[in-house]
Amino acid sequence: MIRLALSSLRFRTAAFLAIFVAVLLGSSLMAAAGGLLETGLRLDAAPQRLAEAPIVVTGRPAYHPPNGSGSVAYPERHAVSSALSAELAGTTGVAKAVEDVAVPASMGGELSGHGWASAALAPYRLIAGRAPAAGEVVLDRRLAGSTRVGSAVSVIVKGESRRYVLAGVAEGAVEAIFFNDREARELSPRPGLVDAIGVFPAAGVPVKGLAEQLDLPTGVVALTGDDRGAAEFAGIATSLPLIILSGVFGGMVGVVMALVVSATIGLSVRQRRRELALLRASGATPEQVRKMVVTETMLVASVALVLGLLLGRTAGDWIFGMLTGGGIVPAALRFDQGVLPFAGSALLTLVILRVTVGIAAGRAARIRPIQALAEAAVPPVTVGRVRTVIGAVFAVGTVGIGVSTIFMSPADAAAIGGPAVLTGSIAVAVLGPLVVRAALTPRVTSFLSSRGSTGALAAINLRVRAVQFAAILVPIVLASAIALGNIYAQTTQQKAAVEAYTDNLYGDVVVSRAGGLPAEVVEQVRRTEGVSAASELVRSQGWIEEPYDSSHTSDPWPLLGVNGPVYKGKVKAGSLDDLTGETVAVPPGVARRLKVGVGSVIGLRFGDDALVKVRVVALAEGTSGYESLLLPSALLAAHTSSGLPTQVLVRTSTPEAVIAGLDLGKWPGATVGSRDVLGADFDTGLGVDAWIAYLLAGIAIAYTAIASINTIAVAVLDRRREFGLQRLTGSTRRQVLRMLYLEHLVIAALGLALGLIAAAFSVLPIAIATRGWPIPSGPWWILVGWVGVVLLLVLPTTAITSRLAMKGKPIDAVV
């Protein structure tokens, strides 16, 4: 049986090559998804600036809801009390404890200021000069460049440009600016707190044992090994984003691979009806035929699977590199792809293959020889009862998902409505032949017939060969639904979120600075001619814990800090003029749910893990589904990593004059712009989710695009005999090619239409849930561009494969 299977491979190169490519890509992408999952579960990130400290004591890096599940990384640095370092130094088994005092300082890049004592945690070693005194700094050699020791350097500290003397140059793991320890404590935005404490065990004391024995306050943790990276790099505290990403990615690849592989295998088996019927007529049993089909397919697939797993490491590194490069995951995170991702990919791929080939082979084995010969000449366009029921279930499920998404909140709409693109595509794949026949309406048939004899033949072929054309239809529908659904769903959600944020804020002019704006800038803006009001703007995230708000657990509340009349939302009770000190304004719906009102005191957990009791002074409405908690800018800024606002909103009737009149030369890095800056800055913060969706869509599109080429090539090359007969009866190559173009253009148009419909069941309900009306947002050229992409896939492939199919003499193809 194996010998027979191997011999048949020689004469079915195109069909088995298509299966080979589909399995190769699918298994490699599945292995890559498994690697992302393992990376998310391990979260290994070797420390760099804290690498020398065996134990790092810091605030817990992730928020765990007290009455909920899941976790989320704190958006701000979680500091610990400086007094704890003295307690740890006096603990039995501890040789010394070194504080890491963070200072919001930079030289035009990221914030990287620290006290000189923390240089021992990397360690950094002096290669020139000495330790810094007051008014001096030590720079990493990459920051120092050609600057000599003793020269003056400019450092942006707490938003202000200050002059320091370069006392020394150090060499270490990452770029850093070191201040005198006493001065660092004074410059720290959180007096009495330190970012981390490096603990060094005494000689002979085991690291893990000592870490477990340390008496630490609530909310403080001792990290060892690669876990120490969570104290140094933001975003490594929780595995949830990578787990979600890998789950969505792996699930999408699995579904796409199952549909594409099943369509390709089914097409290959259907094209061999005559051959299999002759085997049955010559004495082969149904079981022997089934085994032969399964064996030859699994032989090709096994080779593709092995190569796919080898390619899986490269694919995983490539995808993970894009994620780190796009800022979705920290660059310090190590990509882990052990044995399990490859084993899982192999197992899932083999299951998909065995099920799909088993179904196709079972049909080929059960059919009677005479019936098989008849179907080889005129393939029946039928779909079994079970398949019809399955397709109907997925079609009804798609409608149900779309309808239910309409009633979801903006935060849940994408998660609920997103699967509609896959369920709709599955329905088309299962009911493909019926869909092709149903699309051949009298209007379409008459249009084709009006193209002459080639058009009439195209209409007949589409009706008679509906099963084969359904195999070409499936990947086009999949790619179109995934591409248009993911892209327009993301652009719609982004537009809704940006509108909800900007529509609630006044701001004709926006002053921005990445490292933060000191109070002097705000005062300068307020004194500028033409400015009627100005407000600092601070953004962060937090949670309401007292009374506990179960509506926001792993998904935190947006916190918005203001100190002027810049909020547009309607105030239902109280006044925003009272938003000073430790106060808060909450949405009316939240107040009703938590049974609080103006004058009530609630416990708010800030992004730095500080739990602060704040008094409710107003009930302020916001766009439904996008509400924020309003706080005084000074209060919120004190609980951010930089301690400073990053924007100032300006109200004025003459924005052009104000922009021209503001001189920000004293504040390097500060920019002034129109109101559009407000939305652009917020849109940048939304880019992570969008980038993930675009990445998944791009990979799935590439996979299905290759599958489209495969199925078109297999279907065309298998029709050599038909083309030979046409040419012998008087048709020219040009006429045959024109017939093929018409057939594939109809299938391409049908695939685009069905893909657009499947995408609509996702995008339109999301648009209603997020924006209030069923009009998606996004560039129109994406749709036009995708139509061009499909045509570039279909037409050149048709042209090339048709020329190969008609390469020889017509009589040779018939014989």
From TrEMBL:
On whether rRNA-binding is a keyword of this UniProt record, the answer is no
Question: What residues does the ABC3 transporter permease C-terminal domain cover?
Answer: 248-367, 695-805
Where does this protein chiefly localize?
membrane
Q: Does the keyword Cell membrane apply?
A: yes
Q: Which residues constitute the signal peptide according to the record?
A: none
Concerning Pfam families, the annotation shows: FtsX
Question: Where do transmembrane segments lie in this chain?
Answer: 242-269, 298-320, 340-361, 389-408, 420-440, 469-489, 691-718, 739-768, 780-800
Query: Superkingdom of the source?
Result: Bacteria
Membrane topology category: Multi-pass membrane protein
**Cited InterPro entries:** ABC3_permease_C (IPR003838), Macrolide_Exporter_MacB (IPR050250)
- Which compartments does it reside in? Cell membrane
- Keywords carried by this UniProt record: Cell membrane, Membrane, Transmembrane, Transmembrane helix
Family classification = Belongs to the ABC-4 integral membrane protein family.
What's the protein called, per UniProt? FtsX-like permease family protein
Organism of this sequence: Kribbella lupini
